[in-house]
Design brief:
By secondary structure, the chain is mainly alpha-helical. The chain has a single domain, classed as Amino acid/polyamine transporter I (Up-down Bundle), CATH 1.20.1740. The two termini are 21 Å apart.
């Protein structure tokens, strides 16, 4: 029989939190993005510096969000904080955009795995969509069994992922370095152009670091959130930064900054230089391992968002049902269904483009929520407090706002679409509330 809506199991610890952040953050981006960053900043020290700065920013953001996650230790992600600080409607917007963004990310990862299967086994090439659907179905079944099954799976996938990526870095460092470039490097930009190059490079880096908030979706399932959430977030970001710096140093060693700046797929170029013609298969295998952990993590966290919204009266009450294994199975089924619909419809690319804007908006709203709750509810117990308040939280808030502005300028079409979707959400919210109230479904699970 299903459990009561509020009875998620408090069985998770630091190892899960660390695995979730590593799995949620490290996908295929680190294997592709370095070439774009090197093209913006064709200087070894600046190239490595911007990756280190991205890790520091991600750590500051994680330690800021950790205050909210410990203060309000509920599963459901950033919806929980937005609703508490800024009201039901803002919570609704953050919740459903977060859920759709997560579903789109799972769809994109599954499709990428379907495409990679053709590189590893050419007879599978015509069956990419079927493979993508199968992968989503398998992970849905794993997480349906229960939260412990998801915990073990995520720890295993994240461990293998980190080891595989570090093995690539070691192999690159062990091989002879790139010879001096025969063609002259373009100079590092100066003045306003240098500032623009830094912003563009940093934007690419931060998108690659995105995912450090993975553990906050499981606040109500951590055994000791006051200790385990901050520790998980700090360790998670440090591990991700160590992997990223190792890989980028390895790419720089194998290719040199001039060659790296011309590579659209940095890992493939480095693998070709180190492993020769077998490099493509090696990179495909590493990408497969990396994306598998990514798909598992995001699907698991996506299921917590509708669960929380249902508990808050914003979705039908049945969406909050939990099975004996501690999985919000109705919410998981809905997340898988949306993911499969995106895969089969071919519309995921548009949704992914919108999701980039939504992700940054969600961070900006969460950081705003921290300031609002510090001002409005100063006596609320805070077992953990954000580093360097108010300066470090203000810094990460400004970074999120700057990214929103950058998205509006750099990707105006999709940013306007995202704003239209948000504007259209208000009548949807009003209709949903009215229907749920008529059905007697409103209520709180927490």
């Amino acid at each position: 029989m299903p459990r009561a809506p509020s009875s998620l199991l408090k069985v998770l610890g630091v190892a899960f939190g660390l695995a979730m952040i590593v799995g949620n953050t490290i996908g295929s981006g680190i294997l592709r993005t370095p070439g774009d960053v090197a093209a913006s900043l064709p200087s070894g020290p600046w190239f490595m510096g911007v990756w280190a700065a991205g890790g520091v920013y991600a750590l500051f953001g994680a330690m800021t969000l950790a205050e909210l996650a410990v203060m309000l230790p509920q599963s459901g992600g950033q919806y929980v904080y937005a609703r508490r600080a800024l009201g039901e409607y803002v919570g609704f917007v953050i919740g459903w955009t977060d859920w759709i963004s997560c579903s789109a990310a799972v769809a994109a990862g599954a499709i990428a795995l379907g495409e990679l299967s053709g590189s590893l086994a050419p007879p599978l090439a015509p069956h990419g969509t079927a493979i993508a659907v199968t992968i989503v179905a398998v992970f849905t079944a794993v997480h349906w069994i229960g939260v412990r099954s998801g915990d073990v799976t995520q720890q295993l996938l994240s461990t293998v992922k980190v080891l595989a990526l570090l093995a690539v870095a070691v192999a690159c460092f062990a091989a002879p370095g790139a010879p001096p470039a025969s063609d002259s490097l373009p100079p590092v930009p100066s003045g306003f152009l240098f500032l623009s190059a830094i912003v563009l490079a940093f934007q690419n880096v931060l998108y690659t670091y995105d995912g450090w908030n993975g553990v906050v979706y499981f606040g109500g399932e951590m055994r000791d959130p006051a200790r385990q959430i901050p520790r998980s977030m700090a360790l998670g970001v440090i591990v991700v930064a160590a992997v990223y710096l190792s890989l980028n140093g390895a790419f720089l060693h194998s290719l040199g900054i001039a060659h790296l700046a011309k590579e659209k797929f940095a890992a493939a170029g480095a693998a070709l230089a180190v492993f020769g013609q077998t490099g493509e298969r090696i990179v495909s295998a590493v990408m497969t391992v990396s994306i598998l952990g990514n798909v598992s993590a995001i699907l698991m966290q996506a299921s917590r968002v509708p669960w929380a919204m249902a508990g808050g009266g914003l979705l039908p009450r049945a969406t909050a049902l939990v099975n004996r294994g501690g999985t919000p199975y109705v919410s998981l089924a809905l997340s898988a269904a949306v993911t499969l619909a995106l895969i089969l419809s071919g519309t995921f690319a548009t949704v992914v483009a919108l999701a980039a804007f939504f992700y940054v908006l969600q961070y900006a709203v969460s950081f705003t929520s921290l300031f609002v709750l510090r001002w409005r509810e100063p006596d609320l117990p805070r077992p953990y407090r954000a580093w360097g308040y108010p300066w470090i939280p203000a810094l990460v808030w400004l970074g999120a706002v700057a990214f929103i502005v950058g998205s509006l300028v750099g990707d105006r079409v999709n940013s306007i679409r995202a704003l239209v979707v948000i504007a259209a959400s208000y009548p949807v919210y009003l209709v949903a509330k009215r229907l749920l109230q008529r059905g007697g479904s409103a209520g709180h699970a927490e």
